[in-house]
Design brief:
By secondary structure, the chain is an alpha/beta fold. The chain has one domain: CinA-like (Maf protein, Alpha-Beta Complex). Helices cover about 45% and strands about 20% of the residues. The protein has 6 helices and 5 strands. The protein has a 5-stranded mixed sheet, with helices on both faces. It is globular, with a radius of gyration of 14 Å. The two termini are about 25 Å apart. The mean pLDDT is about 95.
Length: about 160
């Protein structure tokens, strides 16, 4: 893990531990990279409950409770889907904080409405569930890495 990802994961762990909160992740395009960064930190079992890698729509439905109607109406890369993913991660874990990620990492799969680099994030915290969409430049690895950095950074900010 690079030093910037390690520093972000450590900082997130400190915030979660200080708050007495547990984290769950629900990842699609990042394929478990967020949870990998978190579990690289010694002692992360004190603040990480579990991680869901739900790459397919069926996995999003089966493991997180994302509805068929939401997927049909908005597509997997959408704020309504990541909201349901984040809420589902909380519902299927002992965590109080969740992050969900779904995006188009490329090189294919993009469209005019959702070009390559479009990534949606969902955040579930005791105060509620929120979502946002980001657009990252670069190749597949760059989009995925920027997604991990954003997810970790945004969680830290939300917990501040």
């Amino acid at each position: 893990m690079t030093t910037d990802l390690q520093a972000l994961a450590e900082q997130l762990g400190q915030r979660l531990a200080a708050s007495g909160l547990m984290l769950a992740t629900a990842e699609s395009c990042t394929g478990g990279w967020i949870s990998k960064c978190v579990t690289d930190i010694a002692g992360s079992s004190a603040w990480l409950d579990r991680a869901f890698v739900t790459y397919s729509n069926a996995a999003k439905q089966d493991m997180l409770g994302v509805t068929v109607d939401t997927l049909a109406a908005h597509g997997a890369v959408s704020e309504p889907v990541v909201r349901q993913m984040a809420a589902g991660a909380l519902a299927h874990s002992a965590a109080q904080v969740a992050v969900a990620v779904s995006g188009v990492a490329g090189p294919g799969g993009g469209s005019a409405n959702k070009p390559v680099g479009t990534v949606c994030f969902g955040f579930a915290l005791p105060a509620g569930v929120s979502a946002e969409t980001m657009h990252f430049p670069g190749d597949r690895d760059a989009v995925r890495r920027q997604s991990v950095v954003h997810a970790l950074s945004r969680l830290i900010a939300l917990l501040s």
